[in-house]
Write a structure and sequence with these properties.
With 656 residues, the chain is α/β, with parallel strands linked by helices. It folds into four domains: 33 residues; 132 residues, Chitobiase, domain 2 (2-Layer Sandwich), CATH 3.30.379; 313 residues, TIM Barrel (Alpha-Beta Barrel), CATH 3.20.20; 147 residues, no CATH class. It contains 23 helices and 15 strands. The strands form two sheets. It has an eight-stranded parallel beta sheet with strand order 10-9-8-15-14-13-12-11. A seven-stranded mixed beta sheet has the order 1-7-5-6-4-2-3. Helix 10 crosses helix 11 and helix 14 packs parallel to helix 15. The N terminus is likely disordered.
Length: 656
């Protein structure tokens, strides 16, 4: 064997060692550079600094270092974090105390001197994790951020080195889901929504209710609606509390009461009992008569049964769009006192009913804004919900009116999905950021993303996901999240789409509704074009424009072949999307047929029978698929009415 020179050997080893170290350092630096907060964190924090060193969590327990007894919700959240950590860092026990000289791997602390409510400081450095929060909510949100960081660690095998300073721009951040036109979600669907909201640091949920609570003495009103029961509300309320979400009762109490007043037992409470009483016959039996003593008696009974099931200190009493106020039975009192004063007196009386339950009343802003000189006379304990669903809604003019009156208020944008089938993406994003900017500027108490279901609630739930996600992000931190890539965020945080296409597909379909500028406010062409008994097609659209819309839909759907979702409901999402697009295309086809043969709105007989039968068969299949898909996420109540809008068109198309 040839003798080796020890010096040369040492030299070679040294060189090799240096190379290994350099490669390792470069590798560490490169890997940590691959940590992209924009990808892994939602919402983006107010401030984040990413270091160059990758972090391996040191041995040690998880310390919950709180001066007082903490809530069970915090312990559950820490247990969830423990579960997230185990796959890549081993089991870490939880403790509230340390042995002498013991150093925890994760330290969770409360510091009441922290000057931001719901805020936290999170540090990952030297293999240790440190969290200091201002309150339990802040600690919970820090843990949510840690869960997202541990998701990164499961993929890469290490944590990033980070310093995060975070807090919300707006105190209350939530979603209002319409459960009265016509979808009432299953409990499973509601729990899934709460899980998603919690992960995105939202803290309020409202379920818009007209007739979909099972009031004991009013079965006739809700018997076909599959309503929420008191027991279900109690269960959902606790589930929300476990996730630091406030479940706020929402019962309309003035307008939008047709589901009640259509029954003869309640017709005496209506402002307009008969079509002849209303300037618009279709609005008869729509609103409660504020001068009828029985109106307040009814609401008192409903509040007494509904409100004790909620732990929230708030209740949304609605009171929007009282279109018939000043007509019918209310004409005399409005002529005497003025419409604004009559409205103010009635909601003030409702507020007194609410206060008996130690709650604060929220109400929609539209009616009082028509009489803004009365804003100063509003009870100071009421909360105004300023809603507007256009990208250019004047939140900048309306918010100051309430701020100057020192009244608490929310800004309430929308998802821009109802009456659209496939969404109205650009308007929705514009509306959401507009509300967030002005909510922060004028110190709004809350930010509520509204998601309505007018005229059958035909849009699938996924169409609202862009609005939920972007609304959650910008209401937490406007500037940090203003320019997030919503489609990419949806792919990563919701759809788990390896093809990275589903988010962009939703955005492109949503842009169909602005085709050639034919967007009407926040509505879409489908508000007029869809096979709907209330809206047929808008004669302003040309045949060529309708054909162009179909081409745009088909072009957008080319992305569908690239979709590779790994979320649990991937196949259901695909079927829901295909059915929604088929419905949208059918609306255009029906409009084209009417254009070709000069048929009037909601009239089809001028279309040749052979052509009508083809259309009828297509819509019948869409209706069948729609009903099948409905039951995967929603209760059966409301399905007959929603699908019946399509089935009515099928019958008319087949008439000889």
């Amino acid at each position: 064997m040839k003798n080796l020179n020890p010096k040369k050997l040492y030299s070679k080893k040294s060189t090799l060692t240096v190379l290994v170290v350099l490669i390792t350092v470069f590798s560490v630096y490169a890997q940590n550079k691959n940590f992209q907060p924009a990808k892994w964190l939602l919402p983006q924090p107010q401030k984040i600094e990413v270091g160059a060193q990758m972090q391996q969590l040191k041995e040690g327990r998880i310390l919950i270092e709180l001066d007082t007894n903490y809530s069970p919700q915090i312990f559950r959240a820490v247990k969830d974090l423990q579960t997230e950590i185990c796959p890549w860092a081993g089991t870490r026990e939880i403790t509230r105390s340390l042995a002498k000289d013991e150093i925890p791997s994760i330290r969770l602390q409360l510091n009441e001197t922290f000057n931001k409510e719901q805020g936290y400081h999170l540090s990952i450095n030297s293999g240790l994790i440190s969290v200091v929060a201002s309150d339990e909510a802040g600690l919970y949100y820090a843990i949510s951020t840690l869960k997202q960081l541990t998701a990164y660690a499961r993929v890469t095998g290490h944590l990033p080195e980070v310093e995060i300073h975070d807090f919300p721009d707006i105190e209350k951040r939530g979603i209002m889901l319409d459960i009265s036109r016509d979808k009432v979600p299953t409990m499973k669907s509601l729990y899934e929504l709460v899980d998603r909201m919690s992960a995105w640091k939202m803290n309020e949920l409202q379920l818009y209710t007209e007739h979909t609570f099972a009031y004991t003495n009013h079965k006739k009103v809700w018997q076909h609606a599959s309503p929420m029961t008191a027991e279900e509300i109690l269960e959902l309320d606790q589930y929300c509390k476990d996730h630091f979400i406030d479940l706020v009762p929402n019962q309309n109490s003035f307008g939008h009461m047709k589901r009640w007043l259509q029954h003869d037992e309640y017709k005496h409470l209506a402002i307009c009992e008969n079509p002849s009483d209303s300037k618009s016959g279709r609005r008869s039996r729509e609103s409660l008569n504020p001068s009828e003593e029985g109106s307040l008696e009814l609401m008192e009974e409903l509040y007494n049964e509904l409100l004790p099931n909620f732990s929230s200190e708030y209740v949304n009493i609605g009171c929007d769009e009282v279109f018939t106020l000043g007509q019918g039975r209310s004409k005399e009192i409005v002529d005497k006192k003025g419409k604004g004063q009559v409205y103010l007196d009635y909601i003030t009386n409702l507020n007194e009913l609410v206060k008996r339950h130690d709650k604060k009343a929220m109400f929609w802003s539209d009616m009082i804004l028509h009489n803004h000189e009365l804003i100063k006379d509003l009870p100071k304990d009421m909360v105004t919900m300023i809603w507007g669903y256009c990208a250019n809604h004047p939140f900048n003019k309306q918010c100051p009116l309430f701020e100057q009156a020192k009244l608490p208020f929310y800004v309430c944008p929308g998802t821009s999905t109802w009456q659209t089938i496939v969404g109205s993406y650009d308007n929705g994003i514009g509306n959401l950021i507009n509300a967030a900017e002005n909510g922060k500027k004028y110190q709004a108490k809350g930010y509520l993303v509204t998601d309505w279901g007018d005229h059958g609630h035909w849009q699938p739930s996924m169409v609202s996901y862009p609005g939920y996600l972007y609304g959650a992000a910008v209401s937490w931190a406007v500037e940090a999240n203003r320019n997030i890539d919503v489609p990419k965020s949806l792919n990563f945080h919701v759809f788990k789409d390896k093809g990275k296409a589903m988010g962009e597909l939703l955005a492109q379909l949503g842009k169909t509704n602005a085709y050639k500028g034919w967007q009407r406010r926040y509505f879409s062409v489908y508000r007029a074009l869809a096979p709907n008994s209330n809206y047929a097609f808008n004669p302003e659209y040309t045949k060529e424009e309708l054909e162009g819309i179909i081409i745009h839909l088909e072009k957008s759907m080319e992305l569908f072949n690239e979709v590779d979702m790994r979320c649990e409901d991937a196949e259901l999402l695909k079927q829901e999307l295909l059915t929604a697009v088929a419905m949208a295309k059918f609306g255009c086809k029906l409009g084209i047929a009417q254009k070709n043969h000069g048929a009037k709105i909601r009239e089809y007989k001028q279309i040749p029978l052979s052509e009508r039968l083809v259309l009828a068969n297509e819509l019948e299949q869409i209706s069948y698929d729609f009903k099948e898909l409905w039951l995967h996420r929603n209760r059966i109540g409301g399905l007959r009415e929603s699908a019946g809008r399509m089935e009515g068109i099928v019958r008319k198309l087949r008439e000889e």
